[in-house]
């Protein structure tokens, strides 16, 4: 869903995605919200930096070493957007 408009995150699509996650992984992995992102923090080898994503999710701005990232701007864009879609399909904006 990277790069899609938030308006395309319909309630039915959210519920289908949650159902797929529950079926494939289990209910413990059920997403609480969806965060729209135009880009993800990628390393030079093309891997997504899960460490940075966890910091963003926890709103922890102490990111440590970011020298391996291709585009640091993606990290700051994620912090600045902080737009979430709740499970019920309603948009919730969290101010930082």
TrEMBL record:
Record-linked InterPro entries: AMP-bd_C_sf
GO BP annotation list: acetyl-CoA biosynthetic process
Molecular function GO labels: acetate-CoA ligase activity
Top-level taxon of the source organism: Eukaryota
Name this polypeptide is given: AMP-binding enzyme C-terminal domain-containing protein
Gene source species: Araneus ventricosus (Orbweaver spider)
Upper taxonomic lineage: Eukaryota, Metazoa, Ecdysozoa, Arthropoda, Chelicerata
């Amino acid at each position: 869903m990277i790069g899609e408009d938030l308006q395309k995150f319909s309630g039915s699509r959210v519920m289908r995605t949650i159902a797929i996650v529950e079926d494939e992984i289990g209910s413990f992995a059920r997403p609480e919200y969806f965060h729209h992102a135009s880009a993800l923090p990628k390393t030079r080898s093309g891997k997504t930096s899960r460490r940075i994503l966890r910091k963003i999710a926890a709103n922890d701005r102490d990111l440590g070493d970011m020298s391996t990232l291709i585009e640091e701007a993606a990290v700051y864009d994620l912090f600045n957007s902080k737009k979430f879609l709740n499970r019920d399909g309603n948009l919730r904006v969290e101010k930082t």
